[in-house]
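Batch manifest, entry 17 of 40.
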Amino acid sequence: PAPGHPVGSRRGARRIPGPGGGILPVPGPGRATGRTLTDIDDAERKTRALEVEREVAAAPDEVWEALTTGPGLERWFPLKANVRSGEGGSVWLSWGPGCEGAAPIHVWDPPRRFGWTESHGTAEEGGPFDVAVDFHAEEREGSTVVRIVQSGLDAGAERDEMVDALRDGWTYFL
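Output type: structure tokens
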């Protein structure tokens, strides 16, 4: 689809901000890459993390704005977003009724690192457990490398498809 046109057939489809989509209107060279990191042996349960990275042709402060403000996030990720800035603040994301929620911000280090913590699962499912979503931004030769690390994911084989879907989702949105 052309820039400014809806993606997919879902109600209220997000709009691509510019040529190539992605986190900023002008994506950097190369494609987003993703991998699953080594399993982490947590005292409570075995967890794993996934990582997706992309270079964008923008300064770190521009990337910071795209990651940490409601309007910035809405350009590339959810349909609606609100951010109460700072560590201890919160991020609220919505893709429409029934698919929205808030998460506390656990790290705020402008313009290098930003992250929130989501609670998942119920007591019946062995939860709730926390999943962290961290964004790292590093300036490199006139561009910025954005790396997303989502950690605390269940390491069980029954969750492989979910982890693959999360990695694919982050790769798509970046």
